[in-house]
Each structure stands twice: as C-alpha cells, then as structure tokens.
Design brief:
6 strands, Beta-Lactamase, elongated, alpha+beta, 251 residues
C-alpha cells in the first residue's frame, strides 16, 4: 500500500521543480511596482490589482492606504463597484461612492480606508475576456484623461495576470494529482498527473504535460536528468531561433 508521506515528499520535490511556474515571483514584483507607479501618476490614496477567479476577485497587489489588508483578500464579484466592473467589463469613474448603491462600504471599512471616489477599469485577458480589475482610490491629479491612463496601466497588468493565471492552474493540477494518487494508491505522482490531464480543458494540456515530465525526471539518475534537461534547452533554443528568422522574413 502506498504511503501518503512518500507522495507528500514527492509533491514537495515537484513544487521545488515547478517553483518558477507555480510562484511567478517576478510577475508579482511587477504588479507591486505597477500599483506604486499608478498611485504616483494619479496622486491617489491607493491603487490595487485583483484577478478574476470564477465568481471571486482575488487581490494580488496594492499600494497605499489599506494595501496590507486588501492583498490576499478574496471578494465575491456579486458585491462592490469592482465586482460590477469585473462582471460587465465596463470601466467606471465614480466621484461620490457613498451615493452609489453598488458601493460595498463594509468591505472598504475592513481595509481601514473608505474612499470618496473610485476609478475601476477591467484588465482584459488574451481572449479579451475580463481577467481582473485595476482600482484607483481617491485620485487627486485632475489634468489627465483618467480612464485612458488607468486602462493603459491595466494593459500592462494583463501580461502579469496572464502568467499568474497559468501558474495558478499549474498548482491546482499538481495538488489535484496528489489527491488522485492517494485515492488510487499510486506509488508516484506521474501516473496521477496523466489521469488529471485527461480531465483538463484542452488549453491546459501543455501545462499538465510539463508537470508530468518533471515528475518523471525525478525517477531518473542524475546523469540522465542532466542530459535530458540539456536536450530540452537545445530544443527551446532551436525553436526560438526559427521563430526569430520567421519574424525577420515577415518584415
């Protein structure tokens, strides 16, 4: 019978291998810098970025008032002005939030800061679907096209959100495989990952395949792993070279 502690040990090793995918720290730093820059540009009390995950807005980064509280918070899209923007994809500039029935005052009070005005724009994903929202609280700079500027910051945030979305999907694949491995009494995660792969939408197959390959590599001896990683690197270099040549010919 498979020991759960062995599977958990494999999971820990796999997460180390997948660290750059599961925890894209660079993108998180980019979002933090973007929020700080936007706050200065708007002369705002605070700026935040939230990712849309199903029916929930997950706040990933913020700068200014209430930032320490809002980051890591999940809020239902059924409430609040940000939720309305996430659902409709419509940018909103509300100068007196207290008079807007969509404003969730209790949520704002939990952060320790209740704004007077809000500017919220959708962050679009690769397929032009709403991937999240960027919120500006109490901007003070008046000589700008606020909606246009916020939309530009949102476009920058979309790149980071796209990678974070893929990373989040990758972590779910790995943890779902652990549960599947325990249920099926597997001795390793690779077979469970393959079964999880068959249940995923087609768009996630490549991601799951990467996890499967990494899990399988851990079974090999050190020399074989080194040669395999080298071969993968050569393939990537070749693909990038061909892509660059193709782009050059198309100009």
């Amino acid at each position: 019978m498979v020991k759960r502690v062995d599977l958990i040990r494999q999971l820990g090793s796999l997460i180390v291998d997948l660290d750059a995918v599961v925890v894209p720290e660079g993108r998180q730093v980019e979002l933090s810098a973007l929020c700080a820059t936007a706050r200065i540009a708007f002369g705002a009390a605070a700026v935040s970025v939230a990712a849309l995950n199903g029916e929930v807005l997950s706040y990933l980064s913020a700068s200014g008032e209430g930032a320490d509280v809002i980051v890591g918070t999940d809020l239902a899209v059924s409430r609040g002005i940000s939720g309305y923007v996430a659902l409709t994809g419509q940018a909103l500039a509300v100068e007196q939030v207290a008079q807007d029935p969509r404003f969730a005052r209790d949520v704002a009070e939990r952060t320790g800061y209740v704004p007077t005005s809000l500017l919220v724009v959708p962050i679009n994903g690769p397929d032009d679907d709403v991937a999240g929202v960027l919120s500006v609280l109490d901007r003070s700079v008046g000589d700008i096209d606020a909606l246009a500027l916020a939309t530009a910051f949102g476009a920058q945030a979309s790149i980071a959100l796209a990678e974070i979305r893929v990373a989040t999907a990758g972590s779910h694949v790995v943890f779902d495989a652990l549960i599947e491995a325990v249920r099926a009494a597997d001795s390793g995660l690779a077979d469970a990952l393959r079964r999880s792969l068959r249940r995923l939408p087609e768009a996630d197959w490549d991601l799951a395949d990467v996890a499967v390959v990494l899990a399988g590599l851990r079974r090999l001896d050190e020399d074989t792993r080194r040669r395999t990683v080298g071969l993968i690197g050569e393939i990537i270099d070749l693909a990038e070279s061909r892509s660059a040549r193709s782009a050059g010919r198309s100009r």
